[in-house]
Structures are given as structure tokens and as C-alpha cells.
Amino acid sequence: MNPTAVVKLDEYLQKARKHFEQWNEEQLRFLNHIKESHFTMSKDLQEKAVSLAQREKQLLETAEKISERLDSEKQEIEAVMAGISQLKSKQEMIPEKKTKLKEELENQSSLLKSRQRAFSEINETSQQKYANLRNAIRTYENCLGLRLERTEDGRIAFIFTHINQQVPEREYSFCIFVDENDHYQVESCTPPVKDITVLLEKLNRDEDLSRFILSIRKRFQAMVS
Predict the structure, then answer these.
(1) Residue 63 vs residues 70, 195, 196: alpha-carbon distances, Å
(2) Does residue 45 form part of some domain?
(3) Which candidate in 64, 128, 137, 224 could, as Cys together with 164 as Cys, close a disulfide (CB 3.0–4.6 Å)?
């Protein structure tokens, strides 16, 4: 090979090597650029993946809270509906209750009137008995040495003197009243009369108070004879 060809070949190879080196540098820069871009993209994708995971977690938590709130609201709605149903049932029962209440009021009114009549009759009877008692008092107060006193609890005490001729001022007494059953009762008797229960039964049977007073006085007289 002649020297000229060798020189040309050498120049060609140098140019080719230079072009190859330039191309190689460009490829390296391109690869580095791709590598950096891939790294940046991977980092961005990773950050986005983390962000999406957090967002997904938040959405799941929000969805769970919404579900719980919906369940709670559903229960409240069911409770309200049950309350409305109860109110409707009570509303339907109101006419029946009003009828029963009216009947009960009428019964109570009738019962009250009956009790008022009974009380009026009892009061009238009691007044008559007390009137008889006052008449008996006036009849025997002077001639029998009888004195009347009202006790602290509203009873009437019959006090006799001139029973014992040796001690005429000595007092013999008994206390009488009308109970809630409109019967005469003796609360105390001084000195005690043995058959006072029998005398009291006769008094409540025939309501002859004068005879009862005379009978008690005779019992007192018999004690000193």
C-alpha cells in the first residue's frame, strides 16, 4: 500500500474514531438523561403511590364513618317511626278512654251523691240523738243532782251527786258519746258498773237515753245501800 493511501486511511480512521467518541458521549448523555428521568419519574410515582395510599385510607375511614352515621340515622328513623306508631295507637285509644273516663266520672258522681245522702241521714239521726240527750239532760239535771261536763276529746261526762246520803258531794260519773256507726258508747264509768254492757245494748236498741241514765243512777245507788 502506498504511503498516500495509508495517510488517507489513518485520517479516515481518526475521523471515524472521533465521530464514534462523539456518538458514544451523546449516547452516554442520553442514557444518563434517561436514567435521571427514570429516577425522577420513579420517585414521583412512589410519592404519588404513597399519597394515593393515604388518600385511599382517608376515603375508607370517611366511608366507614358515613356508614356508621347512616346506621345511626337509620336507627333514629326507626325509633321515630316506632314512636309515631305508638302515638297513633294512643290516639286511636283516646275515644275509648274518654268514654271510660266519662263512665267513671258518672259512677263517682253517683257514689258521691249516695254518700252525701247517707251522710245527711246519719247527721240527721245524730242530731236527733244529741237533741234527745239534751232533753234528757234538762229533765234530770235538777231533780237527780246531775251535772254535765264536756271532756277534752269532745265526750260528754254525766256527773251525779247526792247518791251517797252520808257523803252527798261525792261524785259518780260516766262518759258517753256517739261513734262513727251511730251507736252510743260509754268510754268510762266511775265507779264501774258490772252490767253496763247490757244496759248499753238496750240503749242502742230502744234509744231510750232517759231510761239508761236512770238505770246507771240506780246502779250507783245500789253500791252504797
Answers:
(1) 10, 98, 96
(2) no
(3) 224
Residue 218 lies in a domain: yes
How many independent structural domains does the chain possess? 1
In a domain, 76, yes or no: no
Up-side HSE of residue 54: CA atoms within 13 Å toward CB?
Answer: 5
- The answer to the question of residue 153 being in a domain is yes
CATH number, domain of 147, equals 3.30.457.50
With CA atoms as reference, report the closest residue to 213 among 144, 155, 119. Answer: 144
pLDDT in tens, the chain (225 residues): 677 877 777 788 888 788 878 888 888 887 787 778 777 777 776 777 676 667 777 766 776 777 777 677 778 778 777 877 777 776 666 677 778 878 888 888 887 787 777 767 766 776 777 677 667 666 666 666 888 888 888 788 999 999 998 999 999 999 999 988 889 999 899 999 999 999 999 999 998 988 999 999 999 999 987
Residue-range definition of the domain harbouring residue 202: 141-224
